């Protein structure tokens, strides 16, 4: 199941619970558990949609051609002595 589809289902359930709690059809003692269930569903939907940040491994870049030429000249100068 896709994360977006799961979050959509959770949000629909949260809206249904919220409407049920606001309708007045439930007993007053059940109002708080229904609100907590709604909050739990909303937080779960946010958690499902949260994208995990991945650390990208950076490859070391190739040095520019000038640096390579300078290194070759420096190495050549040391071996010529």
TrEMBL record:
Region Disordered, residue ranges: 55-81
Domain of life: Bacteria
UniProt keyword annotations, A-Z: Membrane, Transmembrane, Transmembrane helix
Basic and acidic residues biased stretches: 72-81
Chain ranges passing through the membrane: 7-27, 33-49
Name assigned to this protein: Uncharacterized protein
